[in-house]
Amino acid sequence: MKKIIAFVVFLLILTGCSGNQKTTSPSAKTQRKLEINLTSKKTKVPTLFVHGYSGTKNSFGGMLKRFEKNGWGKKELIMTVTSIGSISTTGSLSGKEDNPMIQVIFQDNKNTEWSQTKWLYNCLAFLKKRGVEEVNLVGHSMGGVSGLRYLMSYPNDISQPKVLKFAAIGAPFNDFLDTSSAQNIADLLKNGPSEVSSRYQDYENLAVNLAQDTKFLLLAGQLDKNTFNDEMVPTTSALAVNSLLKQTNVVTTKIFYGPKAQHSQLHENEAVDQEVANFLWP
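That's the Alpha/beta hydrolase sequence above. Prediction below.
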């Protein structure tokens, strides 16, 4: 009888301990769920990085190295475009879900935005022939200008992959017109620039062609709170197309301040790195 009582007491103690463990510790299933939520899922969608006027391999070289160091993406391919639009490549796309990155380099790096637009078309046609169906684009300065012109110039072209996301860094969408003396940033974002360039007028005319499911990120730089430019591109120009795009598309804008927000330093700014990475691979 004593053995039976002792056994029952033992079971009660064991049951009580088990109950305490359930209330103080997450289950294995919950722990697995937390781990999954804390880990971003990578994709095999390539992201093309397009430099601006007079850009070189160094223009996005540092950013791509930092992205790789942070484990955000993998630089797999360099596409070099000649002045006649032919393409040579270094490396190859692996097809892995590692957020592949492609650096685009224009040999004639002081040509027009219209030439860059056509060359970008050639790059994407090259990728489509090799089975790439979706891409992202990141452009600095004129790379952003020609990137947006590309998006608006070739609607429903079956030779082109679908562009999911487009990030523009310090891009002079309203040329170099500074409207900050006539309007504040809130008014600009809502209503567009108070004075427009021929470049912006082109965007207005072509906007009807834009795929409405492409998402946009517009980044601008200011040397300080009272200097409305990045030493080259006015803040109001870098954000000029927000009101035009937001009528049909999802648009995010942000301004960076300080010495690292200078035009050529924007793609060396780790805060910009983080903003671009969060946009591309949330």
